């Protein structure tokens, strides 16, 4: 089994990327959120490397002896992650651009409908008013007594 | 037994078609299904009586131990007979009850038959999970049946209330079932559990849960209120669900588990309290009603209390009486409901204050009603009498097997008083429905029906009573007479029911008899009948007495209030959790990360003993760059600066990859970082240069706090995770496998295209989705938009195309110092092209001038170069592009083909092509992009995905597994031996998808945004800017490529108005 002790320098880089990334992620400007996300992505990719153990030669047969190779599995995973991050970047940029088209800025606003629910809940107001919410209206079985069926040959 | 269910299912599904075809007579056909269940039960009578229990098991989901297992013992036999018999009669009744033109009969027929099927399944199921499934099915079907008149508010509310109450009980029951199933040695088998019941605290809790479920279904207090409200259902439904079938499901559950668990004191407490309370409350409330159906509904509540008390008490004699009562009650209560339906159909009302002379006009109906009522009040010689006599005998004799003796006395007293009330409301019912009486005219009656029609409030003329079909009277009369017939042979009933009663084990076996000799039970019966008669005789006094008592809090109101509280609570919870703020949500997720995994780190792990400072001293430099760059990026207030600094971090990460021994990663990271930078700049030119100010210092500290906490947790993870490995790495055999099966030397690439090809397949699907998303966000109406071909615009002299001209004009006067502007102009002049001023003033003229001048003085380096605004052209860039482009494409192809054995592969190759396209676009504008790759990106994406998936399926066709590689080796005369691995085509698919993605990004975020900018700043604004002499109308921008946000008036801002 290869040497699995962690590499302090890489851990420091991971920490720096995560701290700054999360700090930006919690912003409201989509551009900053995106930058934060990319930083976190880089940090996570490094985390994969650390989890894969010590550094080594390129995992290419014939170029490096098998026992000196770095672990290829995390590398394959990170490779797909890098490309996906590119796709995500483009998508968020398109959203930022669209937001700029519609609102003139790229800030993520609070959901208006959610804010409305918060206000209503604070007032304890019912979402609608009808006879059901009146305490002294007739009970439901009294209403049932008045219901009639569509029967065959009653006078109705 | 499975066949019975299939019959129900088939008829239920066929019901709509049957009703369409045959009208209401289709109900006669549907009656076949429940009738077959009853006949099946009858055919097994003798064998079940002798202790033979037919079983049937069909495996269903063996992994969770769920099988379709059915079993018939005495209790099932009884229930099956009732469910099937009454069901068939009710369906026959339906065929005459509803008007031929009544609405919703198709749905109604189907649901009612399906309900009968669910009941059959419920009582025959021998698997507890299966039983629960049928239990919930009855709940759902009853919801649909109660809410049959869904246009009426009362029906909807009644249905809603019923389903909420019974489902809540059902959930409790599920908990009980799961606990029992897990503790029982025989799994979820019902018969196995009862043969060998487990014990313990958990089991006791489970039994209580089961009782809660049973109580909610059988309408015991405190959940009794849904049953009267459910009278909003059509009367046949009331007769079936609320007399014979659904409410009996609760009773069935109690009777099923009582032999095993009635010795528990908590069981007895619940059964006695709920049973006696329901018995008395129901009887008391029934006396107060004026609606015939409501009298019966409250009567049913009361009787259910009595039955649950009897079958749950635990003594053999009481159980026998209870079983007899189940049968008797099904017969008389169904008959009574059906009778009410006939009266209702004939007279148009159920209000007993408005009915008179009905009995004289409809003697057969009256006979049925009277017989059934007599059975209900326990009048000899009817089934109800036999059962009640046995019950009194059992209670007086055995009392409560588990519990103090005073409890027995209390139960006897409660049953006596309950029966007294039953006699009183029973007599009142008969009198109200059938008697000829003088109607006091002063009774206030609501002048409107529920639908709002005006009704005649004077008494109804008996002449209006219409004759009813024998199909309507037949079922009611049959059931009523059956009550008389079965009572004639009490000893046969005793023999039939005794096997289940005997399983109770406590007390002596009881007896069913018409004449048990003079004893306390007989005396009690006489007293009950007499006093009940007195109560009825003095009904005015009783009514006045009841009216004078204060109304206790009605359960319905409590229910409403609690539902309101629940709504409020839900709103409050929503308000706290659904804040609608993205930072809040993300913060919550991150805090969970800190508390969850972070807590585990802190509590259960320790730092590794051995750490390495670095693998390679060269790692220190990039790490320092990363730390500094990420801090600067976070602090930057300018967009472009932040993005560029972030790029530094990205390239440093690529260097770290290289040092770690991951050349593929380093290559891909460098390429991706480049594309990212270009794409970001393309979009950022449209956004404001500075981030908006967020003055809340407080929130910044909170964010920083969360960020540092997350960072520390992740660093902790990075330290702990490597040492946490317990097994040999999955990739230990990759080198050998990659070469042997994947036919490649580059293990990472083989991993991508072969070993973990499914991952890659998923990933390129994501790329496709993201590309489509980008395109749709920018193009809005059509995915692709047109392909910009230079030829179309150069030949078209009616228009001038000046790509990026708008930006030139906007930038030059605004942000760029004056000497820059002069230099632009000078350069343009030397190039022999029109000046900026000329473009603005006379664009058409300038274009034609250029058209003539250009071919002579300049070689065409790029096909679309002429579409650019002159000030945007750079000949050097065009020449370099011309030279570089093809080299890059060749390099990409090299990477693609060598990727299997050396760093490279489809991803890297695709991105290289993408960068080549970017270079062409930057040098020649959007028409150059169209010239470079004149296809829709969707075509590339689709072809790529098709190719990858096709290779996977191809392997399947060749007899391998999906995505398995096939190595083909052959000799070619000139090339020698050629080794071809099919996964190369998979990589080719990846290659195409990546190109498609980047093309889509360039076309959307590059070309399309260009086009929108060119339209956004029309000539008039250019003209205005220039005539003011390059004045400072626009706010100063230090970034040359950015424009001032023209904001919501941009074309495309209005949805769908995209040209």
Automatic annotation (TrEMBL), chain A:
Localization: Cell membrane
Record-linked InterPro entries: CPA3_antiporter_subunitC (IPR050601), NUOK/Mnh_C1-like (IPR039428)
GO CC annotation, single: plasma membrane
Chain positions covered by the region annotation Disordered: 127-156
Segments of skewed composition (Basic and acidic residues): 145-156
Family annotation (Gene3D superfamilies): 1.10.287.3510
Residues passing through the membrane, by range: 6-26, 33-56, 76-97
Biased composition (Acidic residues): 132-144
Topology versus the membrane: Multi-pass membrane protein
UniProt KW keywords: Cell membrane, Membrane, Transmembrane, Transmembrane helix
Pfam family for this entry, one: Oxidored_q2
Annotated family: Belongs to the CPA3 antiporters (TC 2.A.63) subunit C family.
Protein name as annotated: Multisubunit sodium/proton antiporter, MrpC subunit
TrEMBL record, chain B:
Primary localisation category: membrane
Ranges of residues in domain Na+/H+ antiporter MnhB subunit-related protein: 876-999
Molecular function (Gene Ontology), one example: antiporter activity
Name this polypeptide is given: Multisubunit sodium/proton antiporter, MrpA subunit /multisubunit sodium/proton antiporter, MrpB subunit
Residues that span the membrane, as ranges: 75-98, 105-123, 129-146, 158-181, 201-227, 239-258, 264-282, 294-313, 319-343, 364-386, 406-431, 471-492, 512-537, 584-605, 617-635, 642-659, 665-684, 704-724, 764-781, 875-898, 904-923, 935-960, 980-1002
MrpA C-terminal/MbhE domain mapped to chain residues: 700-778
Single biological process term from Gene Ontology: monoatomic ion transport
Entry's Gene Ontology cellular component terms: plasma membrane
Localization annotation: Cell membrane; Membrane
Domain NADH:quinone oxidoreductase/Mrp antiporter transmembrane: 125-400
Domain (MrpA C-terminal/MbhD): residue spans on this chain: 624-688
Membrane topology: Multi-pass membrane protein
Region called Disordered, residue ranges: 1033-1059
Composition bias type Low complexity, residue spans: 1033-1052
Organism of origin: Sanguibacter gelidistatuariae
Keyword Transport: yes
Record domain NADH-Ubiquinone oxidoreductase (complex I) chain 5 N-terminal: where: 60-106
InterPro entries: CPA3_Na-H_Antiporter_A, MnhB, MrpA_C/MbhD, MrpA_C/MbhE, ND/Mrp_TM, Proton_antipo_N
Keywords tagged on the record: Antiport, Cell membrane, Ion transport, Membrane, Transmembrane, Transmembrane helix, Transport
Domain of life: Bacteria
């Amino acid at each position: 089994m290869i040497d699995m002790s962690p590499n302090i320098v890489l851990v420091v880089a991971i920490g720096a990327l995560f701290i700054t990334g999360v700090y930006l992620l919690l912003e409201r400007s989509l551009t900053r959120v995106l930058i934060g996300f990319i930083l976190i992505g880089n940090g996570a990719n490094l985390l994969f490397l650390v989890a894969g153990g010590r550094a080594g030669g390129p995992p290419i047969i014939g170029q490096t002896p098998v026992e000196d190779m770095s672990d290829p599995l995390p590398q394959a995973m990170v490779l797909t992650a890098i490309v996906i991050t590119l796709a995500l970047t483009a998508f968020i940029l398109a959203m930022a651009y669209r937001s700029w088209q519609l609102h003139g800025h790229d800030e993520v606003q609070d959901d208006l409908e959610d804010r409305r629910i918060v206000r209503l809940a604070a007032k304890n107001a019912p979402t609608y008013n009808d006879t059901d919410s009146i305490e002294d209206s007739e009970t439901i079985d009294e209403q049932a007594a008045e219901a009639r069926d569509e029967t065959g040959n009653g006078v109705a | 037994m499975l066949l019975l269910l299939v019959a129900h299912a088939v008829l239920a599904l066929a019901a709509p078609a049957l009703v369409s075809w045959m009208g209401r007579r289709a109900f006669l056909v549907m009656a076949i299904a429940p009738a077959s269940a009853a006949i099946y039960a009858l055919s097994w009578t003798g064998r079940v009586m002798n202790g033979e229990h037919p079983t049937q098991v069909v495996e269903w989901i063996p992994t969770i131990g769920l099988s379709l297992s059915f079993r018939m013992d005495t209790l099932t036999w009884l229930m099956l007979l009732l469910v099937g018999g009454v069901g068939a009669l009710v369906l026959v009744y339906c065929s005459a009850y509803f008007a031929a033109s009544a609405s919703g009969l198709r749905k109604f027929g189907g649901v009612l038959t399906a309900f009968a099927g669910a009941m059959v399944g419920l009582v025959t199921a021998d698997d507890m999970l299966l039983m629960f499934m049928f239990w919930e099915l009855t709940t759902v079907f009853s919801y649909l049946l109660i809410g049959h008149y869904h246009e009426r508010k009362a029906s909807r509310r009644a249905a809603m209330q019923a389903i909420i109450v019974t489902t809540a009980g059902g959930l409790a029951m599920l908990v009980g079932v799961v606990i029992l199933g897990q503790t029982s040695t025989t799994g979820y088998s019902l018969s196995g559990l009862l043969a060998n019941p487990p014990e313990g605290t958990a089991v006791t809790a489970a039994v209580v849960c089961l009782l809660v479920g049973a109580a909610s279904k059988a309408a015991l207090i405190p959940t009794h209120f849904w049953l009267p409200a459910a009278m909003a259902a059509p009367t046949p439904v009331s007769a079936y669900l609320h007399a014979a079938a659904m409410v009996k499901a609760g009773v069935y559950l109690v009777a099923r588990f009582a032999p095993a668990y009635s010795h528990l004191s908590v069981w007895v407490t619940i059964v006695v309290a709920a049973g006696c309370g329901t018995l008395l409350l129901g009887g008391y409330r029934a006396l107060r009603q004026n609606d015939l159906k409501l009298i019966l509904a409250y009567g049913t509540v009361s009787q259910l209390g009595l039955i649950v008390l009897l079958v749950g008490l635990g003594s053999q004699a009481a159980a026998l009486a209870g079983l007899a009562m189940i049968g008797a009650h099904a017969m008389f209560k169904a008959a009574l409901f059906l009778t009410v339906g006939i009266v209702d159909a004939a007279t148009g009302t159920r209000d007993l204050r408005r009915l008179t002379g009905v009995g004289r006009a409809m003697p057969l109906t009256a006979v049925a009603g009277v017989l059934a009522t007599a059975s209900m009040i326990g009048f000899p010689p009817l089934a109800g009498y036999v059962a009640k006599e046995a019950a009194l005998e059992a209670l007086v004799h055995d009392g409560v097997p588990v519990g103090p003796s005073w409890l027995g006395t209390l139960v006897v007293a409660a049953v006596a008083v309950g029966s007294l009330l039953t006699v009183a409301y029973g007599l009142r019912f008969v009198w109200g429905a059938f008697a000829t009486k003088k109607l006091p005219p002063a009774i206030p009656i609501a002048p409107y029906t529920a639908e709002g029609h005006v009704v005649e409030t004077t008494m109804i003329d008996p002449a209006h009573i219409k004759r009813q079909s024998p199909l309507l009277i037949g079922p009611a009369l049959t059931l009523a007479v059956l009550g008389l017939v079965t009572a004639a042979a009490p000893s046969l009933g005793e023999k039939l029911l005794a096997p289940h009663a005997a399983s109770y084990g406590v007390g002596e076996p009881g007896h069913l008899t018409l004449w048990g000799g003079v004893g306390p039970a007989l005396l009690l019966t006489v007293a009950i009948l007499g006093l009940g008669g007195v109560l009825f005789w003095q009904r005015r006094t009783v009514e006045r007495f009841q009216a004078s008592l204060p109304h206790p809090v009605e359960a319905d109101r409590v229910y409403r209030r609690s539902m309101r509280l629940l709504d409020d609570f839900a709103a409050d919870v929503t308000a706290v959790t659904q804040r609608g703020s993205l930072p809040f949500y993300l913060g919550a997720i991150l805090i969970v990360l800190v508390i969850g995994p972070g807590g585990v780190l802190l509590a259960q792990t320790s730092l590794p003993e051995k750490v390495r400072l670095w693998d390679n001293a060269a790692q220190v430099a990039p790490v320092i760059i990363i730390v500094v760059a990420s801090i600067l990026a976070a602090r930057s207030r300018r967009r472009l600066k932040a993005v560029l600094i972030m790029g530094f971090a990205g390239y440093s990460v690529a260097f770290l990859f290289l040092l770690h021994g991951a050349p593929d990663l380093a290559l891909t990271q460098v390429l991706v970082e480049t594309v990212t930078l270009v794409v970001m700049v393309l979009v950022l030119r449209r956004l404001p240069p500075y981030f908006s100010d967020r003055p809340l210092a407080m929130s910044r500290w909170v964010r920083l706090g969360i960020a540092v906490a997350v960072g520390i947790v992740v660093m902790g993870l990075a330290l702990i995770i490597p040492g946490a490995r317990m097994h040999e790495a999955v990739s230990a055999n990759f080198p050998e496998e990659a070469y042997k099966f994947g036919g490649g030397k580059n293990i990472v690439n083989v991993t991508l295209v072969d070993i973990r090809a499914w991952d890659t397949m998923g990933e390129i699907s994501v790329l496709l989705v993201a590309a489509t998303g980008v395109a749709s966000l920018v193009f809005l109406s059509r995915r692709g938009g047109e392909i910009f071909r230079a030829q179309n615009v150069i030949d078209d002299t009616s228009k001038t195309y000046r790509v990026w001209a708008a930006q030139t004009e906007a930038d030059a006067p605004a942000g760029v110092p004056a000497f820059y502007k002069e230099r632009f102009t000078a350069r343009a002049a030397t190039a022999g092209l029109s000046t900026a001023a000329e473009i603005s003033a006379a664009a058409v003229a300038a274009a034609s001038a250029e058209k003539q001048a250009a071919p002579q003085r300049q070689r065409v380096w790029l096909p679309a170069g002429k579409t650019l605004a002159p000030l945007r052209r750079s000949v050097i860039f065009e020449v370099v592009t011309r030279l570089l482009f093809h080299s890059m494409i060749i390099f990409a192809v090299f990477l693609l083909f060598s990727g299997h054995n050396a760093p490279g592969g489809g991803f890297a190759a695709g991105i290289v092509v993408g960068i080549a396209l970017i270079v062409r676009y930057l040098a020649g504008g959007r028409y150059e992009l169209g010239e470079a790759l004149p296809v829709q990106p969707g075509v590339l994406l689709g072809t790529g995905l098709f190719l990858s998936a096709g290779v996977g399926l191809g392997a399947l066709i060749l007899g391998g597994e999906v995505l398995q590689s096939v190595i083909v080796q052959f000799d070619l005369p000139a090339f020698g031996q050629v080794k071809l691995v099919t996964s190369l085509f998979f990589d080719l698919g990846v290659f195409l998808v990546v190109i498609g993605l980047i093309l889509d990004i360039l076309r959307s975020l590059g070309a399309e945004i260009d086009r929108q900018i060119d339209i956004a700043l029309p000539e008039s604004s250019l003209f205005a800017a220039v005539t003011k002499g390059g004045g400072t109308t626009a706010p100063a921008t230090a970034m040359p490529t950015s424009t001032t946000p023209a904001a919501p008036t941009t074309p495309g801002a209005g949805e769908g108005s995209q040209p």
